[in-house]
Amino acid sequence: MATAAAPGRPVNRLTVLYDAQCPLCVHVRHWLLGQRWLVPLRLVPAGSEEARRLFPELDHGATLREITVVGDAGQVWTGPEALVVCLWALAEHRPKANWLATPAGRPFARATMATAAAWRGATRPGGTVACDDRCAVPG
């Protein structure tokens, strides 16, 4: 989902709401921090007091289930669109983001997010596996 609160207004800053209890999400956060940004990123734990203060209008339960990115003009992106916007903010990955936003690239963005969701679903905070000993923990 993406909403454009201010169509045509440039994006000057993005806030990425991530699940601080998810090892994959925390890893991606650290990766984002190590990239060169074309658009400044603020990384805030989803559902946190800070997130609720910054964005009282958001469904904070939903932000814990799916990556959410908020633009400084009030735009909101979730799921594959949030992935594309995050990559678009990075110097090295903007060309890939531009391609992922096309009809040809969109299935790859969806597949990436589906894979990330499956990984998250296979583990729980504390390292417990959601499917007991019947499946391998993603490594």
Question: Helix and strand string, N-terminal first?
Answer: EEHEHHEEHHH
Number of helices: 6
Largest sheet: 5 strands, mixed
Query: Over the alpha carbons, how many angstroms does the gyration radius reach?
Result: 15 Å
Structural class: alpha+beta
Content of β-strand: 5-15%
Strand order of the largest sheet: 1-5-4-2-3
Name the helicity range.
Answer: 40-55%
Distance between the termini: 29 Å
**Average of the residue pLDDT scores:** 85
Uncertain runs are: 127-139
Number of strands: 5
Using the alpha-carbon principal axes, give the shape.
globular
Set down the secondary structure blueprint:
Blueprint: E1 2-3, E2 14-18, H1 23-33, E3 41-45, H2 49-54, H3 60-65, E4 68-71, E5 76-78, H4 79-88, H5 94-100, H6 106-122
Helix pairs in contact: 4-5, 4-6
